[in-house]
Design goal:
The complex is a heterotetramer, with 2 copies of chain A (374 residues) and 2 copies of chain B (401 residues). With 374 residues, chain A is α+β, with helices and mostly antiparallel strands. Chain A contains 11 helices and 10 strands. Chain A folds into 3 domains: 108 residues, Orthogonal Bundle (Butyryl-Coa Dehydrogenase, subunit A, domain 1), CATH 1.10.540.10; 106 residues, Butyryl-CoA Dehydrogenase, subunit A, domain 2 (Beta Barrel); 143 residues, Butyryl-CoA Dehydrogenase, subunit A, domain 3 (Up-down Bundle). In chain A, 51% of the residues lie in helices and 15% in strands. In chain A, strands 1-4-5-8 form a 4-stranded mixed β-sheet. Chain A has a 4-stranded antiparallel β-sheet with strand order 2-3-7-6, with no helix packed on it. In chain A, strands 9-10 form a two-stranded antiparallel ribbon. In chain A, helix 5 runs antiparallel to helix 7, helix 7 packs antiparallel against helix 10 and helix 9 crosses helix 11. Chain A is globular. Chain B has 401 residues and is α+β, with helices and mostly antiparallel strands. Chain B is built from 12 helices and 8 strands. Chain B is globular, with a radius of gyration of 22 Å. Chain B starts with 6 loop residues before the first helix and ends with a helix. Chains A, C: It holds the Pfam family Acyl-CoA_dh_1. Chains A, C: This is Acyl-CoA dehydrogenase. Chains A, C: Its cofactor is FAD.
Chain lengths: 374, 401, 374, 401
């Protein structure tokens, strides 16, 4: 049993970490978020240069053929550095394109993305978040060789800067049925696609998207109703691992920042970190982080070994969400008033963790599914 | 034990309802719905205070000679229930639960005459200058100096976490007038007649929720007459402690908590649960909601128990307990709010949250309010003496020396 | 609004407290529990002498006509003093007899009890505890003028020393239906009644009771199927208030004992009560106690005013159960190893609180019912 | 990252299964089911240890030259899984995870030769004499004295919370040999060859669950050869700290937690929920059970992560974290056990809980075990360094000086 990163992975983490330290301090991030919703073409290009867009795409699709361990290795660093670039939101769309039956348009979009071009936005979420792909409800109908999409998707991050959207929809069956789900590639400016874009609490740009009789040619259907659910799972499983890695990175940063603050900040003539109540709270933060991180690492190793069931992913996602909120709440409390302001990074890490908990299904649904069946 | 019930109380309820029917305007209800803090939107909260003051109901608990309503506890409950039912915004506590009661207790006759009418009517709004950058939990270490200059003091220094200072036209604050002896000595309590005094600057602080609620206030030789002192020079700490009694657990947390709980219930009854139903029908949600409601009610009952003359009325730990229990209950409530909102809580909708905004919420009002309220409410366990400080105070009383 | 005890109630509390302080220290209690399952005829007689058995029985049934406030006033003292006598377990049976249509036998049993005779055991619980009377499932059939009882009851406290049992059963309808429940008085040694008795964790004697075609004459049917559920509620509502008062009394005692221990016990050369982690834990215990107590007092005042709905009682019961477990767990933790032993009273208070939480319906069911409907 | 899987591992599993098929007797399974503590019933636990020792599997993690099995982490997991599946009792940690590894590391060659065989085979059982009435969390303040007398020490004093001392035939303990200097100095680590030495008395302590698990041990001039000392005189504190490493988070908490979780699931699937169904189908219960299971798995993974060479393997806070997390997870689990048992957890069934009892449980085995286990498990956050002490240790590592 080996649960360590390889030397190559460690090097990649180090070089990404150093790059972000040099080029992406908190004030830079603040400026990028304020100016352009978290996306700076220069930083995006640099990340692509490091191979991060191509990292886990298959080699025959212009990728580097990296593993989920590679993905987790870099995503943890991005979370720790609070990267607002839509690398993670672009991941499932790219993976769906890479593993689905993409035609020429799709292949071109993917190749462009891999080289640092526009992200492929993933238009999948509905309602208050889908706890599993089988819950997709937005409808699609077949007409001739085409697919007609009608309905709405919520919280599509980076849709504004994407050239394409990967969209999940249902041609048959009721929400909950694995069969009947299709996945399609849609140009972001295709007729009938309307974006309602907004800032998100965690410094990104999201959009609710309406599809009104949007026509998708057969070549752009990435998976039909027999394969749609599997394709979504294939795209989402690495994404959830990366998302959890990002969150674990953020938690680790919060533990460090908070412990440092407790050592430096004085009240009553002594560091606040000398008060047992705060010491214990910080100890709890450290435990929550370690617990989440070990769950991440072992689950990642299982995924790498092909032994990670949907239940294992649910458990990871739900635990990281729960621990993340705990750690974020404690970080603010230990910081006191200053932790409540927009000035410090603490609140921004916290909101990133909250956003990650909300997406891809509320923790309560995942926990219940775990509790319902061993 | 005895609870007042029956016809007289119902007659009073009818009177309240008639008054509310005649006076509540849509912007007040909108302000109530868009309250993402313990502090309601300023303009509407003050307008509503003015309307109530005109009726003699702005500060029902004050002594009647100063404008109180002379209500029984049950009447106060009825009034709170009816306001809660309409979703009216809470009044801001600064005037009515802080500086007003303090001046009634400790102000000079001149101060009472000069300030109480504006405090009650809402013509004035008072902000509170206590915390400083290095004096938060350790408030007594404050260093904002007031130097004697004839009949005046000259104030130089800085305050922080001054809620709504950018809306205020008056301020009460603690300053250091002596550096001798224990740090609690040498503090003086002052009143500022204006926020536009020469040398005074207000800078807004943006919070986690994206709103400016707190401010920094800078003083550069700001001149204040000594007649504006409450209590003796260097005795401001005991004045502040007197005031803290009102601040911590002084008012009933029940109505605000119940109003948010009702909103949570209604939202859960509309919100899809991701499994084809609505969240309100999920037994797991019901169990946790039931636990939360039980806590809301227990906190409310603890207040009532004290008000009804029971043991908590004589318990020196009561204010700290109420502060701790009510802040943590509101935090638990806010956590369930973002749970119900789910993804819909993630868009940042600062514009739509303004009272009178042209744009509506992306999904609905509850979803729009949930995240800012959750984030803002993190402060409840920090301000007015952090909950760590409160637990220290409680332990000091409970554990024999 | 007045939420204080009257002078008479304060006097009664004081005299009971003083009696128990003089005659019922922890070692005496230990001996009574070990020798006879918590029941000592002399103490029982003394309690009766103080009017505690007759306290809330109607004056026309030999009682003192006391209110629920009286009940709560004395029960809190009993909990604080860890009284193992089956005063509380005997309460619902006596109340059912007092408010039901008891015949001569019932009237005699009640009169005897009121004067310090045998308790009337309440054979009502089934399964893992009934969250409401309407869940009664044990069957009864009518035959001629008689009622025939068949089935089992669980956790009947003081059955061994009772002369009579008050038994709930169902003649029609499914569990959950309010209609169809009867309440009957049965001699403990009636043919077909079998006791399987045991010690309980909280120092009492319980029994599981089997009823095999037990015949009940019409005169001993206290309530028929239209009135059974109401009679049970009439018996249980004051009992639940008293039970919660007892638990609140126990919690208060635990807070005091634990705070005292923290002040006295030294480690690292200082009282353990100087460590902030333990100080805060004790502050939490004190808050839990106060929260439970205020819920008790206000609910009692509402009951006295005739304005206490079943939902209010559920809320009280569930809160007291939850807070009780919290306080008990913390008391043991603060005491450390010595808190884990049978030697100190701490563990006995704790187990009393656990037993009270388990009876009359698990907290989770009460909380859910509260959450399900406003 | 790499997990071993595949045929070789499955062949090993078959070997384990064959061994268990041949050697597991009903009383062992009964002892497993009637384990209401981290400590299994003594007689069966030791018999099972003997059976495993004969096969070379009693202490798989020991160095192979001392009787270890040389298993990979994955093999150890397979063995644990198969034992868990049959509900076998856990082995007692005193011999195998405490004094054995300690002597391997720090014992003299003579001590190793003399003691290790009996430690491994289970012929001997060693109890641990650490705590004293006034030295619990503050262990270093211990006062049980050992006075030099030629080649021997004479021990006088008292130990407390000595688990299974009434079953033990040997003891390792800390004594004070000097009162000079810091309290951590002057402590010596000794081995007792017998519990029947003149002057030694064992008194059982009854626990909340009604069972004697802990003991007091009294020493009145008990004679011990100096050759029975581990480490140097007055250097026992560093010996004890070395041992603590094994005690805190040394073994995997996974198997025991998973076994109890499985029992909880099975019981919930049988237990009426008071509303006409079974508890296992209650979504609220499912949600909480899911959270508990997630915690059980996270704790288990934290252990695996360390064992797999990841960051926790090098984290000085790891032992304290494992101790805290595993103890609090077992407490949460025990709380759900009494919730499922409900009223059926209230009868006190000490007789039926004995292995080989004539009487069965009043309802079923799970209900009988739930309350004693819940009560006993309160100790998990107290012994081996209270969780308050563990959090202090973690904070000392996490917060910069």
């Amino acid at each position: 049993m080996d649960l360590t990163f390889t030397d190559e992975q460690v090097m990649l983490r180090d070089s990404l970490g150093k790059y972000l330290e040099r080029n992406y301090d908190f004030e830079t991030r603040r400026a990028v978020v304020a100016a352009s919703g978290g996306h700076d073409p220069k930083i995006w290009a640099d990340l692509a240069e490091m191979g991060l867009m191509a990292l886990t795409l298959p080699e025959d699709r212009g990728g580097l053929g990296g593993s989920v361990v590679d993905l987790v290795a870099v995503a943890e660093v991005m979370g720790a550095k609070l990267l607002a670039e839509p690398w993670l939101p672009a991941l499932p769309g790219a993976l769906a394109l890479a593993h689905g039956g993409a035609g020429e348009g799709g292949a071109a979009a993917l190749a462009a993305f891999a080289e640092g071009g526009a992200p492929i936005a993933f238009a999948h979420e509905e309602g208050r978040a889908l706890a599993e792909p089988a819950r997709v409800a937005m409808t699609a109908t077949r007409k001739g060789g085409e697919l007609i999409l009608s309905g709405a998707k919520r919280y599509v991050v980076a849709a504004e800067i994407a050239t394409h959207l990967v969209v999940s929809a249902r041609v048959s069956g009721a929400p909950g049925a694995r069969a009947g789900i299709v996945v399609a590639l849609v140009a972001r400016d295709a007729p009938g696609v309307t974006l309602d874009a907004y800032d998100t609490v965690d410094g990104r740009r999201g959009a609710n998207i309406r599809f009104e009789a949007v026509r998708v040619p057969a070549a752009d259907v990435l998976a039909d109703e027999d394969a749609g659910c599997d394709l979504l799972n294939a795209a989402l499983a690495p994404t959830v691992l990366a998302l959890c890695a990002d969150a674990v990175g953020a938690m680790g940063a919060l533990v460090k920042i908070t412990a440092r603050y407790a050592a430096d900040r004085k009240q009553f003539g002594v560091p606040i970190g000398s008060f047992q109540a705060l010491r214990h709270r910080i100890a709890d933060m450290a435990m929550a982080h370690q617990k989440a991180r070990s769950t991440l690492i072992v689950t990642t190793a299982m995924a790498e070994a092909g032994a990670c069931a949907p239940r294992d992913l649910r458990l990871l996602k739900a635990q990281v969400g729960r621990m993340g909120r705990e750690v974020g709440e404690s970080a603010v409390q230990v910081h006191g008033g200053v932790g409540m302001t927009d000035e410090l990074s603490v609140g921004h890490y916290f909101k990133r963790l909250l956003a990650m908990d909300a997406i891809y299904g509320a923790g309560r649904l995942h926990f219940r599914a775990i509790g319902a069946a061993a | 034990m005895n609870l007042e019930m029956g016809e007289a109380l119902e007659a009073f309820r009818a009177e309240v309802i008639a008054f509310l029917d005649a006076n509540v305007t849509p912007d007040l209800v909108e302000a109530g719905a868009k309250t993402t803090s313990v502090f309601a939107p300023f303009e509407q909260a003050m307008r509503w205070q003015g309307i109530l003051a005109a009726r003699g109901w702005a500060a029902p608990n004050w002594p009647v000679e100063h404008g109180g309503a002379g209500w029984s506890a049950e009447q106060a409950d009825v009034f709170a229930q009816e306001c809660e039912r309409r979703g009216l915004p809470p009044l801001l506590p600064h005037n009515l639960k802080m500086i007003g009661p303090l001046l009634i207790d400790l102000g000079t006759p001149e101060q009472k005459a000069k300030y109480l009418p504006g405090i009650l009517s809402g013509e004035d709004f008072w902000c509170q200058g206590y915390s400083e950058p290095n004096s938060g939990s350790d408030l007594a270490s404050l260093r904002c100096m007031a130097v004697s200059d004839g009949d005046d003091y000259l104030i130089t220094g800085q305050k922080i976490w001054t809620t709504y200072a950018h809306h205020a036209n008056r301020m009460f604050l603690l300053v250091r007038t002596s550096t001798e002896g224990k740090k609690q000595q040498g503090i003086t309590f002052l009143l500022l007649d204006s926020m536009d005094l020469p040398g005074l600057t207000v800078k807004k602080t943006i919070g986690l929720d994206g709103f400016p609620e707190q401010c920094e206030v800078f003083f550069d030789a700001v001149r204040v007459p000594k007649a504006n002192r409450v209590g003796a020079e260097n005795d401001g700490w005991s004045v502040a402690k007197h005031l803290l009694k009102y601040e911590r657990g002084g008012g009933s947390p029940g109505p605000a908590l119940r109003r948010r709980l009702a909103a949570l219930r209604e939202a859960a009854a509309r919100a899809d649960d991701g499994m084809g139903g609505v969240i309100a029908d999920d037994p797991a949600f019901q169990e946790r909601l039931g636990m939360l409601e039980a806590d809301v009610i227990s906190v409310d009952y603890h207040f009532r128990h004290a008000r009804g003359g029971g043991e908590p009325a004589h318990d020196p730990a009561y204010p700290s307990m109420m502060k701790t229990l009510s802040s943590e209950t509101s935090q638990a409530l806010s956590a369930m709010m973002i749970e119900v909102a789910g993804l819909e809580g993630l868009p940042r909708q600062l514009d739509a949250l303004a009272v009178g905004a042209n744009s509506g919420p992306l999904s609905d009002g509850f979803d729009m309010v949930a995240m800012p309220y959750y984030l803002n409410t993190r402060a409840a366990s920090i301000y007015a003496g952090s909950n760590e400080i409160q637990r220290d105070l409680i332990a000091r009383i409970v554990i024999p020396a």
